[in-house]
Automatic annotation (TrEMBL):
Membrane-crossing residue ranges in chain numbering: 5-24
Keyword flag Transmembrane: yes
Protein name: DSBA oxidoreductase
Family in the record: Belongs to the thioredoxin family. DsbA subfamily. Belongs to the glutaredoxin family.
Amino acid sequence: MKKNFVLTIPIIIGILAGLFLAFYPQTEDNPKILTETNLIHNGSPILGDHSAKITILEWGDYQCTFCHKFHQTTLNAIKQDFINTGKIKMVFKDFPLNGEDSILAAEAAYCAQDQGKYWQYHDELYKNWAGERTGWVNRNSLDKFATTVKLNLDKFNTCLDNHKYLDKVNQLHQFGKEIGVDATPYFLVFNNEKIIKIRGNQPLEVFLKSIDEL
């Protein structure tokens, strides 16, 4: 009886360890996942000086209300004082919480990237934001935005028709989940030594404090 009990202990420990890992997956604190390279890789083209030591990574959704507010307010100040002056670089990664339209908008931005106009198209999407799940993201509106930023429409529509970047968008969404992203906008402000999380559309002062810490 005692021998069977001793043999059972490792089994119980193994089961408990398995349950622990199942309910506590790798998070944003895992250094193997959250390297500077991994965070920048596969996202948007870098906005700003590539050699800037501090990076702001935004996880966003083109239909997200608070993402839109961030792009219309706080981001303008950050661009003027930090990105345009070479102190900070920025990367955008997609976290499409609002369904298929958000995924399609993200695909469209990467199709614009094929023609060297990712950020112009990205900004045009937020400029024309018209609510969450209201239908404003559709093939007609996406073509209109493409025309505004002077894309070749045939190439743009071929890219969208073929869903060239669907896998990329889905992979970014999954990666975000794996590192703990659970809302939009969600920011990681980091250098090669430290990462600071900012959840939601926080006041400019919150970003300035994070930048000062780094």
